[in-house]
Structure formats: C-alpha cells, structure tokens
Write the structure tokens for this entry.
Amino acid sequence: MPPGYQPPQQSFSDIPPSAPGYGMPPGAPGYGYIPPTGYPITRPAISLMSQFTGMAMWSIILGVVSIGVPVVTGLFMGGGVVYFYVLPIFGFIRGVQAVTRGQLIGGIVGIVLNIMGGLLSLFIVTLR
C-alpha cells in the first residue's frame, strides 16, 4: 500500500444479505418493533393502590386495630374495654417509614389513624 492511502469507508449497506434460512423469520419483530395500539403503556408501580402496600398497609392495619378493638369491646363487653397503648406507637413508626419510602398517601392515612388510636387509648387510661 502506498503511504497516505486510506481505505474507503464501509457502510452497512455493503454487507451482503445472509444466506437463505439464516436470517430473521418472516414477521419477527426487529429493532423498530412498536407494540400494537390500543394497549395502555403505563409505568409499573405508578398507581393509587401502590400507596397502600408494605409499610403503609401495616400502619393502616395497626391504626384500625388500635381504634376498632377499644370501640367494639366498649360496646359489647358491658363496661370492660380492651385497649392497646403500644400498638399505635408501632403503627406511627410504620407510617413514618412509609412516607420516607414514597408512599405518602398511605403513610399519612396510617399516621392519622395511629394518632387517633393513641389518643383513644390515652383517653381510656385517664378515665379509669
């Protein structure tokens, strides 16, 4: 080769086609595949239900139990009331953890329920 010789640029159109039987099957999606229309394309875990899973769900459950059990036992036990004074604390902690993990709606619902449960337990203790 003479000095200063540069080989010509190659493009992909210069590549010969593959032998029969070795190419892509007919109808197979290539790089430009576009999903059929009519199907909604949503990002996973971006829904309202995802706000009420995990830590938020546990916070809500603990809040409902800390409110529901004293109310139900107060109505049906004839003066005896069962209450939980530690349960709302754990529910509140779970609610804060849910808020810090991005479950804002479920975490706030759980925090409010556990504050109400804690105040209800405090009210029951001060009446006795």
User: Anything to note?
Assistant: The chain has three helices and no strands. The chain has a mean pLDDT of 82. The longest helix spans residues 104-127.
